[in-house]
Amino acid sequence: MTSKHRVTVNLSDEEADALTELAGKSKVSKAWLGRHAICALLERAQNSDGQIPLPLESIAGGKL
User: Fold this and answer.
1) Looking at residues 16-38, what average pLDDT do you find?
2) Would you state the pLDDT for residue 47?
């Protein structure tokens, strides 16, 4: 697959460790997991009229 676009995200140490562990257990790359998650999110948005539920309460409470 030829990549034309890149996305960079900042993860907490805990999130990075969990992602690394999941990638290892699943025998896939962290990039693959990221693409998979993005595709799932886009599919959810497409199936719900382009709007996804946003966790605004978590953001307001400083949890994200």
Assistant:
1) 96
2) 80
Helix, strand and coil in the chain, % to nearest 5: 60, 0, 40
Q: List C-alpha distances in Å: 17 to 5, 6, 29.
A: 25, 21, 13
Q: 15 near 22, Cβ under 8 Å? A: no
What's the mean pLDDT when you consider all of the chain?
85
What span, in angstroms and rounded, lies between the C-alpha atoms of 2 and 5? 9
CA-wise closest residue to 52 among 61, 62, 41, 63: 41
Domain assignment of residue 3, yes or no: no
- Contact partners, residue 55, CB within 8 Å, separation at least 6: 64
Give how many domains the chain has, as a whole number.
Answer: 1
pLDDT at position 60 is 58
